[in-house]
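Recall from the previous lesson that a structure prediction takes nothing but the amino acid sequence as input. Here we apply that procedure to Helix-turn-helix domain-containing protein from Thermomonospora echinospora. The sequence below is the only information supplied.
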Amino acid sequence: MIDRAGLAEFLRRRRESLQPEDVGLPRGQRRRTAGLRREEVATLCHISADYYSRLERERGPHPSEQMIASIAQGLHLSLDERDHLFRLAGHNPPARGATSEHISPGMLRIFDRLTDTPAEIVTELGETLRQTPLGVALTGDTTRYTGPARSIGYRWFTDPATRALYHPDDHALHSRVFASGLRAMVTLRGPGSRAAHLMELLLARSEEFRAIWNKHEIGIHYNSVKRYMHPEVGALELTCQTLLDPEQSHILLVYTAVPGSESHEKLQLLSVIGSPNIIPQTAPNA
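The prediction returns the following tokens.
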């Protein structure tokens, strides 16, 4: 059963404890509100300001699990705080660990500061949870996929458009890395896992994947530099740095170019022109 008073109080206290800079928002001038404004929280949670305001006033409909998950992420809650919020709203908290998509506050704080850099947060199966604007300009909005196509490894073997962004000479290495990484996840998570389901789908749908899978390669990694073929600015060479959240199995990927290089200049151009939705979704979702 929903605890409306407890839910409203918890939301108010969490909102008031956050500052704009904590969540990647500009502070601006003439700020008198303690913490974030309701409108700012609503934007972070991808809900209407009216809906959020009613929750803080102990009114409105019973929020769904999806809505509570969005609010928990928008307020940068820890896992314990997220679980508490779910219980206040009358729901059982989601599972923790590898299947969870709740990004930790610490990783979000780092991500929110990467405003001028291509970066993304992905799951262990290569499903994009967050992208910076320049990340979207580089690869398109990869958060919009659904079903198995959320995994870049799945798209790599089933959607030719995914490969168009990468240098042709590197395609063979990408294939080996994706197959090797998925094998490691299947071994780690076991039969019945989401990794095992992806493996079964790819074995049924990709002859290339089957051939590589049968080689039983493990531990194949990228070189230090990834080469992209962007439709607007052309070839880019970017170094990818990673940060792992071991509790949630999420990975922060940050792409940088050598200062003064041609790729660095092209990233600066991308930050101006942008390039959303450059990869059409053609892969099947199930």
